[in-house]
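Supplementary Methods, section 5.1.

A reviewer requested that the exact input to the structure prediction be made available. We therefore reproduce it here, unchanged from the version used in the analyses.
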Amino acid sequence: MFYGEYYSDLLVLVSLSLIQYFSLSLSPSPSLSLSASRSASFPLSMNLFRLTGDLSHLLAAALLLAKIWRSRSCAGISGKSQLLFAIVFTSRYLDLFTNFLSLYNTCMKVVYITCSYATVWMIYSKFKATYDGNHDTFRIEFLAVPTAILAFLVNHDFTPLEIMWTFSIYLESVAILPQLFMVSKTGEAETITSHYLFCLGLYRAFYLCNWIWRFYSEGFFDLIAIVAGIVQTVLYCDFFYLYITKVLKGKKLSLPA
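The structure derived from this sequence is encoded cell-by-cell as follows.
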C-alpha cells in the first residue's frame, strides 16, 4: 500500500509537531495577518485544531508530491490549481525574511512555498508530457482578478503586505476550483488524488474550527479568515460526501459533470 511506506515519516512529523505545540504554545499562526500578529489585545495560542490542520495540510502536500514523483506522471492534477496555490503562499509570506515570529512559523512558511513551487515545476517542466492540459481549462483569471480587487476593497489595513495577505486568503478559498472542475470533466479521480483533496479540505475545515475555538477561548475574531474558510469548506462538501461514501469503500471517486 502507498500509505504504508509513509506511516513512519508521518509519525515522526506528528511527534515533532507535538513538541512544537508544547514548546511554542504562544507562537502566531502562519495564516495570520501582520497587523493581527502584532496586536497585543489578542494573544495567539496554538490549539489542537490548528495543529491538526497544519498536519493535514502537510500530509496533502506530501501525498501530491509523492504521487507525481513515484508515478512519474501528473495526470489528473490541475496545474492551474497548483499555480494558484503557489501565488497564495508567495503573496501571504512576503514577510518571510523580515518578520520572524517563531521557528515553527518560519518552517511552515518555507515548507508551503517550497512544496507549491516544486509541484508547479513538476507539472509544467519535469513531467510536462503527462500533464492533461486539455481537461485543465478553468479560466483562473476569473478567480485571481476578483479576489485581488476584493482584497483592495476589504482588508484589515490598507498597506501593501496586508493587502497581499488578504488577497492570499481570498484566493486560497477558491484555488481548488480548477482541480474540482478538472475531476468533473474527466469523470473520476485516482484514489491518491482523492486522498490529497480530502486532506486539503480537512486542513481548511480544522482551521475554521481553530478560528471558532479562538473566538470563544480568546475573544479573537478575524472575519476575513472565517468567511473565506467557510467558502472554502463549503466547496469541499460534495467532495467530502463522495469521498466517504465511495473512496473509503474502495470505489473510484467521480464528480457530476
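The CA atoms of residues 82 and 111 lie 15 Å apart. These observations are discussed further in the main text.
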